[in-house]
């Protein structure tokens, strides 16, 4: 047995895929701290600190703001299954893999989703959302702020105005934007918002930050039926994380340590400075890619700073290039998801990964590989374009 | 901000509550290893190793054996919501907080539970289970092997025979037994079994080992309705953890590292040796407690080796004693849960915590505190009783 399962020795990777991104050393260090009881007064203090830190990062004053004990997908499910009960109508903006999944979950909750379809790789058409809202009595409007599968950003502020007009709750997926791109939960009128830890927060995957406005919590309290999931039942989570500290489940202590440290790092850097860093490195990366003759799927005004969707040039072997990046340079990037499989590379610049060094190294490695694969690329053009951005 | 949220510095505790238990240093070290991508070939190899290790610890050859990306409560929910669909009958043995919760979840799944009630702190009456099974067409019989809330063990093997006679699937909660007490999933005819990582496996909380027999998987595949949870949908989890490695969610990488290392430690020690260690330390603890005049709630033959339910002597202030243990000795023990609140201390000896040193220290600390609280305890009697056990 001991021979079969050796000591763990994972490689050092540069994680430029759609997530996880690289984890800050201080966060890894926090994970190795001694585990204490989940009802220890010291841990309860830590929980309350994490809630406060999360409020600052979400830019909200919502009381119900905490990390769910599951990954980002659990955050999506918690948001939908608490907000929607059997028979509830919901307008769901679908222009990517993750918004498509929202519709699936809404149906599993017994909801009646009206789908506003959008082209993958582009922002959703706000006019379509408006007419869908007029044709339904939607309790919830759901949209993904930053679509991890396409690299496109959706116009959350505009959709918020429409939702408010119709009195619907606005539910927003910010898995690939929280901590990397401007997001103001209260100012933008978002009622329900969830994210993941392993993208722009620079923390390992495992928890899902979530926030519900008072209006959204009231809707949860006024449900006619029990939430179908006990594990994700917000009423129970509220009494566990809240003043009562009533047992609901055992929080993942080490992951909570990690989230606390990651949030501390975000606020030490400052939200605005952090967003600027993500924007700058994204701009440089795109300049380099375009100088190499590559294209970005979303249009200029609808691109994420955190995830870059690069159209794979014709004749290039998707998997081979990604494997060479991994094996020769220990750089991970992602392939396409769903209908975009084989058509896209997804290059993440999130959290600790978003750095000038990573931009330079990646472009240089990609240039070398594409040249050796026979693509006609002007050597050095990317590097020159990047320098112009950084100045 | 930096002043408000200082660097994390949790105290070193001796975790003798109902969980989490102390984490082995090698497991903490594994958590601080570099995070890699969840679709990295190296990580997929680690996933398959974890599945193999888990099979050994569950003593099963079930293909579907993996850790769910949530805590033990998520394991309970995944087990029930995949096995039970609306209208399904289920016999649920309820003699504690956690089995009571099973009934709640079964209802949330649209199931029709028949409750077999048992006294808290004692094993369930097998005859009652038999007659309940005769009166229903149960698809599932659910029982908690080791009730964390009462310290009592249920007769899983006997219930298994009854379930098999009626063709029902046997679903067993082993949160507080896996890795600490004998449990043979295949030999005992268990179809569905789940656990947690933070008890006898000596790992931080955050994942839920689970296993489904081929018969149980067939029932899942033959469902008429979708599983209500996408996050916990076993069909999807199967293609993610299985040969296809199809994206479902992002596994909590660092927690998977921790689980792997914890399972490696279990098998290095050897299952039988580990069970013996848990039995010996439990026997010594009970001998010491009884020598001090304290009583254990469950009868001699129905006691867990992993969690000891100690009846709080009359006139003693529950919270005060627990606080003094924590503040003066950094020892955590648990209070009672549900109807046993204020009546019980729950003293865990699980995983890395189950050691001779911890038994001695705890008894000595408790003796000192109880004496100073005015209880008439013969000094040294516990120590003498314990020595007789260890020999």
Order of helices and strands of chain A: EHHEHEHEHEHEEEHHHHEEHEEEHH
Largest interface: A-B, 82 and 82 residues
CATH topology category name of the largest domain in chain A:
Aspartate Aminotransferase, domain 2
The major pleated sheet of chain A works out as:
7 strands, mixed
Average per-residue pLDDT of chain A, rounded, comes to 97
Shape of chain A: globular
Distance between the termini of chain A: 56 Å
CATH structural class of the largest domain in chain A: Alpha Beta
Q: Which value, in Å, is the CA radius of gyration of chain A? A: 21 Å
> How many DSSP-defined strands of chain A?
13
Low-confidence stretches of chain A: none
Oligomer: homodimer
Beta-strand residue fraction of chain A: 5-15%
Walk across the major sheet of chain A and give the strand order: 2-8-7-6-5-3-4
Lay out the secondary structure.
Two copies of one chain form a homodimer.
Chain A: E1 14-15, H1 25-31, H2 41-58, E2 64-68, H3 72-83, E3 89-94, H4 97-108, E4 112-117, H5 126-135, E5 140-144, H6 156-166, E6 169-173, E7 192-194, E8 208-212, H7 214-221, H8 234-241, H9 253-269, H10 271-291, E9 295-296, E10 307-311, H11 318-329, E11 331-332, E12 334-335, E13 344-348, H12 356-372, H13 381-390
Parallel strand pairs in A: 1-11, 3-4, 3-5, 5-6, 6-7
Antiparallel strand pairs in A: 2-8, 7-8, 9-10, 10-13, 12-13
